[in-house]
Amino acid sequence: MPLLSLIPRRAAARVESGEAESDLVRHIAAGDRAALESLYRGYQPRLVRFLGRTTRRLDVIEEAINDTFWIVWQKAGNFRGDSRVSTWIMGIAWRCALKSLRDRGDAGAEAPAEDTLEAGWTDPTADHELHDWVAKGLARLPVEQRVTLELAYGAGHSLEEIASIMDCQVTTVKARMFHARVKLRNVLPVLAGEGGPARDGRAHAETKDDEPS
User: Are 159 and 197 in contact (CB under 8 A)?
Assistant: First the structure.
């Protein structure tokens, strides 16, 4: 069922007014469609960015987001607060995206477009040339590694939360981060030779203590 058929047309301001996400979930469980709209409006942009790490297919992203909030509408009463609301929603979105790709017969998620990657990693005060360079490196990573980095550095989730979202062990998350950093460390100098920025060792940042334990 399309999500927009569930929620009222008028804009809700409850997230902007500071109502806690857990309270919104509680209201959704009681059948409050305005609370669903508030949660949807708060999460839609970050889910577009997050799912853009998985696929560049806008039809998959849109379907996954709608399916995510249909599940939130149906299952809000089952949320017990054992994790953050963001962890719960991101986990649903991840599974919905994978299901959508499988249903379409996709063997695997293709690398997202570089402009999609940039949207999730751009610091407005930073060097845009550097971010374009890093985005090209991220586009060469396997989907699980891209998503892991997005959840850790883009969304600020802990290792335990990422494991919950991606339905894997914490050791798997650590391994994905380690291998992603190694690949970036190897590929970024190559990209720099293709016209990327010549920087003073920033391509090697955060690699000293990367090995998973």
Answer: no
